[in-house]
Design brief:
- The chain is an alpha/beta fold.
- It folds into 2 domains: 195 residues, inorganic pyrophosphatase (n-terminal core), CATH 3.90.1640.10; 121 residues, Diaminopimelate Epimerase, Chain A, domain 1 (Roll).
- The chain is built from 12 helices and 12 strands.
- The strands form 2 sheets. The protein has a 6-stranded parallel sheet, with helices on one face. Strands 7-8-9-10-12-11 form a 6-stranded mixed sheet.
- Strand 7 and strand 8 form a beta hairpin.
- The structure holds manganese (II) ion.
- The site of manganese (II) ion has 6 residues, from loops.
């Protein structure tokens, strides 16, 4: 559990009310939660009369573009002096700010996050237990609406929050999904959001590149440690130039194998040969957040990530040793 919870959700809501010209920061390799929460928060800040923009260290993946109509500023196009308030959204660590970190170091006013092990990035942090940051933004909106700060739902906000919730819960399938998640989703549907259309775009449609990525993933799956550890090693060599963004479903492929306790998607970073980004999932028997912490990463108990350097085989071997040790302790 993160040991700083300086602000309650209500206190964070009231802090947002006084913000003007706010920049909302998303995390590296932006996903539906960081983008959906930021877009919802932007609408909220605009409804409050403050104005806001969104920035991300990397561009949104093509697959999310139909759900992300907002302009997202890139680090090289930002004049930090233009903004009087800065809020980071779903960002668990300094490294997750990527190229935004040097621009806003020490300048973040509020941190809204839900990761079990978060680095303190701002003076004021709100890091409650939540399946997605979208749950926190929903609560903030409800508190402020109840107090009469604005009426109704800003147009498109329900869709943004549904994107956030459905993304981080894997379409409400992961163990982080709570009754509260479903209650909020129900409210979003009541507000008129087309959940089926959003879920179709998120989980039932893919590009030819993503189909090719699945073929490559299946050819590079390894079942290790007597079937307890399943990993896909996706080095530049086997990807044939296909960018890592197309391999976001690889982790679901490796975690789907019966009997697997820990699953890993090991992707060599685009443009950084010898640097591997590792996504880990656990069936609950191993805390993969602790495991990733051994390599300078973090996340949640059942879903975490880290980076390692070396050849693909070296990285896989180091990771396999760590998973073996973790499994022996269970
Ligand atoms: Mn999240």
């Amino acid at each position: 559990m993160t040991d700083f919870r300086s602000l309650t959700v209500g206190e964070a809501a009231h802090r947002l009310c006084s913000m003007r010209d706010t920049l909302l920061l998303c995390h590296t390799s932006p996903d539906g939660d960081t983008l959906g929460s930021a877009m919802a928060l932007k609408k909220l800040l605009c409804a409050l009369g403050g104005g806001a923009e969104i920035a991300a260290p990397d561009k949104a993946p093509d697959s999310l573009l139909p759900l992300v109509p907002d302009r997202i500023l890139m680090p090289d196009g930002i004049d930090p002096a233009r903004f009087s308030s800065v809020v980071c959204v779903d960002v668990a660590s300094r490294s997750q700010l990527g190229a935004l970190a040097p621009l806003f170091e020490g300048r973040i006013d509020l941190m809204l996050d839900h990761h079990e092990k978060s680095e303190r990035l701002a003076d004021f942090c709100t890091v409650p237990e939540a399946a997605a940051v979208g749950e926190i933004v929903f609560e903030i909106a409800e508190i402020l609406r109840g107090e009469g700060w604005f009426a109704g739902w800003p147009a498109g906000m329900a869709e943004n929050l549904y994107l956030s919730l459905s993304s981080d819960t894997g379409c409400f399938r992961y163990s982080n999904t709570t009754p509260k998640t479903h209650r909020i989703a129900a409210r979003l549907l009541e507000a008129g959001c087309d959940g089926a259309a959003i879920n179709h775009l998120l989980f039932e449609s893919r590009s030819p590149e993503e189909l090719e990525a699945e073929r490559i993933t299946l050819q590079n799956v390894r079942l290790l440690l007597g079937g307890r550890f399943c990993a896909a090693l996706l080095s530049h060599a086997v990807r044939g130039g296909l960018a890592s963004e197309y391999f976001s479903a690889a982790i679901d492929t490796v975690r789907s194998v019966r009997g697997v306790a820990v699953a890993a998607a090991i992707k060599e970073k685009d443009g950084e040969p010898g640097v591997f980004k590792i996504s880990l999932r656990s069936d609950g028997s191993v805390n993969v957040s602790d495991l990733c912490a051994l390599f300078g990463g973090g996340g949640h108990a059942r879903a975490a990530g880290c980076s390692m350097q070396g050849t693909g085989e070296e990285v896989l071997s180091r990771l396999t040793d760590a998973v073996r040790a973790a499994l022996e302790q269970t």
